[in-house]
């Protein structure tokens, strides 16, 4: 399940921490610069953005460093306002983007991040477990040798009735040798291909009659038992589940907002590109609401 969840998450999870949006409830004034006030809420917002720059400082100095940087920002912002730089199209666009992004984060923090309950995650866990296809695992031992001739000699010993575990302790050059070559249980994709192919072809109690070559040397492999891989515990995948649920909530919120507002790609080149992408995704059928007017 861990691998299945990781594959889902690799599509790109939206990660927005609730703590990134400072509470406006605390309006205590910490400092002033000219007629402008610096409040506790502003300092918290600045700490979320600037704090990592001062991580090496002691905590009491770090808070002052962030406040000092915030005052510097406000000082030059005041000069920029006097110079009417906010009227510059590029600056105005950046200001609009910063405002939109802050509101975007605040909305999702309140309506998405804060609304993921333990019960919801457990329900999703049960759903994912039920949908999992069984995955086979094998419990194997191996004897690793430097040459094919040595490995073939070991096969002859085993054919003569020698105990696999005992021979592994005596002759295996691998790190598992002292443990009788025991590798424990492993699933597909955890061993090098040649070793894995040979191991999964064996039944419990069987060993390879022909040595298997890998970059580590020559192996004689014995399978002790097989099983269906146990499902991971809830706590092992809880964080992955949370991100999966958050991504779905985010996509649902964005989809609903886009549908209600309507999206119109005014630029002809952009519209043509969007149409082409949607046809590719939908197998020739444009996605609803994305061909120019999303109403």
From TrEMBL:
One of its GO terms (molecular function) is peptidyl-prolyl cis-trans isomerase activity. InterPro entries: PPIase_dom_sf, PPIase_PpiC, PPIase_PpiC_CS, PrsA_foldase, Trigger_fact/SurA_dom_sf. Pfam families: Rotamase (PF00639). Its EC number is 5.2.1.8. Residues 1-24 form the signal peptide. Keywords: Isomerase, Rotamase, Signal. It catalyses: [protein]-peptidylproline (omega=180) = [protein]-peptidylproline (omega=0). Residues 135-225 form the PpiC domain. It is an enzyme of class 5 (isomerase). Belongs to the PpiC/parvulin rotamase family. This is Parvulin-like PPIase. The lineage of its organism: Bacteria, Pseudomonadati, Pseudomonadota, Alphaproteobacteria, Hyphomicrobiales.
């Amino acid at each position: 399940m861990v691998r299945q969840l990781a594959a889902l998450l690799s599509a790109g999870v939206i990660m927005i921490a609730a703590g990134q949006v400072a509470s406006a409830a605390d309006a205590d004034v910490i400092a002033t610069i000219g007629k402008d006030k610096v409040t506790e809420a502003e300092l918290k917002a600045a700490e979320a953005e600037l704090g990592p720059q001062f991580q090496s400082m002691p905590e009491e100095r770090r808070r002052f460093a962030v406040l000092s940087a915030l005052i510097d920002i406000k000082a030059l912002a005041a000069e920029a306002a006097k110079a009417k730089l906010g009227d510059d199209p590029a600056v105005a666009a950046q200001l609009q983007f910063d405002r939109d992004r802050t509101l975007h984060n605040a909305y999702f923090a309140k309506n998405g991040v804060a609304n993921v309950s333990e019960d919801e995650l457990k329900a999703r866990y049960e759903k994912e477990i039920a949908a999992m296809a069984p995955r086979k695992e094998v419990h194997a031992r191996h004897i690793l040798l430097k040459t094919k001739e040595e490995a073939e000699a070991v096969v002859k010993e085993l054919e003569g009735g020698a105990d696999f575990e005992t021979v592994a302790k005596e002759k295996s050059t691998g790190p598992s040798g002292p443990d009788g070559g025991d590798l424990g249980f492993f699933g597909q994709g955890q061993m090098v291909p040649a070793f894995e192919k040979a191991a999964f072809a064996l039944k419990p109690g069987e060993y390879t009659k022909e040595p298997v070559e890998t970059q580590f040397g020559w192996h004689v492999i014995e399978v002790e038992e097989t099983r269906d891989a146990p499902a991971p515990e809830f706590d092992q995948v809880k964080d992955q589940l949370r991100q999966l649920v958050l991504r779905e909530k985010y996509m649902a919120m964005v989809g609903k907002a886009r549908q209600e507002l309507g999206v119109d790609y005014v630029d002809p080149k952009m519209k043509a590109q969007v149409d082409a992408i949607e046809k590719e995704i939908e197998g020739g059928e444009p996605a609803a609401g994305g061909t120019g007017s999303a109403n």
